[in-house]
Amino acid sequence: MTVGLVIVSHSSKIAEGVIELAAQMAPNVRIAAAGGTSDSPSRIGTSLEKVQSALDEAEQGDGVVVLTDLGSAVMTAEMTLEFLSPDTRSRIRLPQAALVEGAVAAAVQAESGGTVDEVASAAERAVVSIDPESLEPFVSHGSAAPGPSAPLEAAAEPAVTGAWTLPNKMGLHARPAAVIARALTDLDAEVTINGVDGKSVMLLMSLALGEGKELRAEATGPEAQKAIEYIGGEVKAGFGEL
Amino acid sequence: MALTAQWAEAWIRECSQVLTEHRTALIELDRAIGDADHGENMQRGFAAVVAKLDAGGQETPGAVFKLTAMTLMSTVGGAAGPLYGTAFLRAATALGDAAEIDPAAVVGFLTAARDGVVARGKAEPGDKTMIDAWTPAVEAADTAQSAGASAVEVLEAAANAAQAGALATEPLIARKGRASYLGERSAGHRDPGAQSSALILQAAADTAGRQQ
Fold first, then answer.
1. A52 in Cβ contact with A25 (< 8 Å)
2. What's the CATH code of the domain at B166?
3. Residue-wise pLDDT tens digits, B151-177
4. Could you identify which of A223, B89, B112, B159 might form a hypothetical disulfide with B69, taking C-beta atoms 3.0 to 4.6 angstroms apart as the criterion?
5. Residue A10 designated active-site
6. B193: contact with A, CB 8 A cutoff
7. B17 lies in which domain range?
8. ipTM of the complex model
9. What is the number of structural domains in chain B?
10. pTM for this model (two decimals)
């Protein structure tokens, strides 16, 4: 069992689309949609009734993280929580997060067995902003990724490094980014990949590393060697897509 | 004569009718500074409530308001759903199981409804929202009741103040909701939510007046 997710959107298509995207990286997480109004045919809007039944569907005992789009979706979600018993409500989180990025990050965190607080916090941290000035035309977007590029403070221990060229057609796209981020989360090592946190699926995806680009990894900590070997193995195998 | 469940039901049915008549006008107001769906949303929401009232079973004004709240929250769509839903839900809670509403209880449920909208939408007077109709309405109702007005007179005072409040939103710059994205361009247009609030409160006064 994992933490469940509920996607509240004004549009049923957005809710379904976000679930389609997030589920790709988290096949075992229960994600329920609450998009559009309750009347038939469903219109643009949000519905208390739909949020209530989505919560029932997503809850398996470990809690639910609710992600929303525009203003009134937040109000509808808040109302729904007010109707729940304090016990049920205590297992639900309503993070302030970007819907798409938050849902993907939350789904990956839930898939790796995160608690409801960890999943909510993953959603809140998943905001990817691109600085246009640092984008070079026709060059990897790697330099545009936010976040500290070198948090490896005054290396008390030497970093283990590795560099490989991506052999597969789609490069480091959503699925392999999720696989790598998840595997690295389980290792006792600090890992950066092309300057971003290797345990963040959103940051890895924001690198937009395509076929033929170089992936550089640096790791410190007790399992640094293991982390680098793992990444190297995955890259060389083209993430199983060759 | 105090107001009863019969009045509460008549009020909500009148809302449905009035909002149907003003559907296009509300859509036009919303087209200027929003997403042009307020008239449609309100009409559909109240039509859904009327369909549920037809099934019967609401024996107190509070029960009528609770059914109204729950239905609006699932069928209106847009911010008006949770906002009006909260308003009617808080009104229902304020009235409890009471079978009749005296003038003081009118002020009580209007105040609870307004406070609910404020808590849900986190808007303040002057933000160009529903609050700009509800706040003067509650104040006028309170003043009228203190002066010894009947329940009908209290509702009439509230309705008049709400309409004046809705008109007064025209020069304001929106600071909440979708219209706030427009910034200064929102000035010069009446807020659709304030206008629908005024219509709903006018319907309350009209139906109460007819029952006397």
1. no
2. 1.25.40.340
3. 999 999 999 999 999 999 999 999 988
4. B89
5. yes
6. no
7. 5-210
8. 0.71
9. 1
10. 0.73
